[in-house]
């Protein structure tokens, strides 16, 4: 999957499928399933590192996980998520940090926000670094929102989000993630932009969909937003397996003769 191919999908009306990945093992499984894009999301701060939000994730954390994912990926597009404070301070810092993602093996970066980051998006694009925007409920602004809340619900908020999306496209973004926004607004944005929209909690009208891998697999159940659909229940399976293992070792059933060397 290349950036031109990614953009072409919208014209062809073929949905783009995006999943987050944080390590080589899952990157291989996700790719084997035919997923188009692996997003090394800063959601790793919550689902991998166990923090309350994504704000403490560092560039070093992100580069480490990007290397693991990119190193295990053959065909899918790998996008690195720029963490808090890696692009907000200045255009220069944004360019340097985004470039480090490409050196780690990503083919593109994602960053959050609209008007305030448009100059970053333009600079990165100018220097050959493809950028995916991210609007709506942007988790790095969680304190400003006072929690993870649906955005763009009133007329003013919806119009502002649409303007931000248009500005990101004009600055050169190749796609925009729409997170936790009403489905009608996501449809308006999708119909207005020529670049693909990727929804997460944005209804069925986006050009593609993204989910956090551990939510999709039912591995992370501490906080499950309405928009998550678990397609498996791996935490339940893991617990069952571990409890059985514990029981069998305690009872002397494992290891048995067939797991022993002679
Ligand atoms: O960090 C992340 O995983 C994300 C996606 C949920 C869009 O930003």
SSE map:
Elements: H1 3-12, E1 16-20, H2 24-32, E2 37-40, H3 44-47, H4 59-72, E3 77-81, H5 91-103, E4 108-110, H6 118-126, E5 131-136, H7 142-145, H8 155-171, E6 175-179, H9 183-192, E7 197-200, E8 208-211, H10 213-216, H11 234-250
Parallel strand pairs: 1-2, 1-8, 2-3, 3-4, 4-5, 5-6, 6-7, 7-8
Bound molecules: 3-methyl-2-oxobutanoic acid.
Overall description:
The longest helix has 17 residues. This protein is α/β, with parallel strands linked by helices and 262 residues long. The protein is 42% helix and 14% strand. It has two domains: 229 residues, Phosphoenolpyruvate-binding domains (TIM Barrel, Alpha-Beta Barrel); 28 residues. It has an eight-stranded parallel β-barrel, surrounded by seven helices. α5 links the parallel β3 and β4. It has eleven helices and eight strands. The chain starts with a helix and ends in a 12-residue tail after the last helix. α6 packs parallel to α8. The site of 3-methyl-2-oxobutanoic acid has 10 residues, from loops.
